[in-house]
Every structure is written in structure tokens, then in C-alpha cells.
Write a structure and sequence with these properties.
One of its GO terms (molecular function) is phosphatase activity. It comes from Salinarimonas soli. Keywords: Signal. This is Histidine phosphatase family protein. By secondary structure, the protein is an alpha/beta fold. It has a single domain, classed as Phosphoglycerate mutase-like (Rossmann fold, 3-Layer(aba) Sandwich). It contains five helices and eight strands. It has a six-stranded mixed β-sheet with strand order 5-4-6-3-7-8, sandwiched between helices. It has a two-stranded antiparallel sheet with strand order 1-2. It is globular, with a radius of gyration of 16 Å.
Length: about 180
Amino acid sequence: MQRQQCQAWRPFVILLSGACAPLVLPAPSWAQQAVIIVRHAEQTPTGGMMDGDPPLNEHGAKRAQALPERLRQAGIKAVYSSQYARSRETAEPLIQATSARTYVVPKDDMAALTAHIREHHANDVVAVVGHSDTIPAMLKAWGHPEPVEIGRAEFDGLWLVVPRQGAAPVVTRLRI
């Protein structure tokens, strides 16, 4: 039985950078291929996270510009970001490089976003640019059983989520 299930899976290949070997994960043909969740890049300093809507700083803009190269072979069909400038600015180079459909969604309901992605992109690879507080909620909504903590100064996180029917997703955390 195990062998029959494996034969139904398609390979999913992502080259993340010239320095990384290809990452090969199986993706079942009956489900979401993969969701790539990225923390927004570095923002300009403010009085606090809730202080206005800060844009990316110079380092953040460079990180955002490098994102398309790292995800060039992922086959991204849609890119989601929150309404905040730092999220939209991180997503923009990826959107331009992939010609993916673009969605700006409210930051506060990761369960609804997950349901939307499952319904409208069931066979696609989707990228989501999130925040330190939304990424753990999104991973939980996808069924990841382990808690995830993201430090306020961590801007290099990328999570590859491959959903599996009837089981927890395969989740790989990478640094970009």
C-alpha cells in the first residue's frame, strides 16, 4: 500500500540559490502542491511594530530583490501579502519576476487565508509574505503541529509547506 501511494506523488523541485542543492519533496497530485511562506524583509526603524506602516529599509529592499532569484524554479502561480507596506514591498519583486496573480489580504485571519488558498489554488505553488505573528498562525492553520517562534529581528525565514491528506504537512524551514 505504501508503494502505491508513493507512485501517485509528483516530484516538487525548488532551487533556492546557487549555493543550495535542489530541494526535492513529494507533492500529492490530489492536494495543494506547496505553500512558500516568507517573512517580510527588514523595515525602517520606528517606535514599535504597531507604529504606523513602515516601508522596507535599504537592506530589506535588497533582500526583497534577491527573493525571485532564490525562488526562480518554484513555479509560483500566486503571491499573497498583507496590506502593510513592508509585506507588499517584499512581495513586489517576486510578483514582477513570476507574473503570478497577486492578492493583498488582511493580516488578521490566517485560517480564512489558508481556506482561500486551498479552494482557489488547489494544484498550485503559492507564496505568502507574512509577519512574525502571522506565520506561526498560518503554519498552524495548515496543520503544522509544532509551535513556531519568530524573533522580531529575524527577517530571513522561509517555510516550505507541502500539505498531505490525512497527515500533518511536511514543513521545511530555510534561511534566505
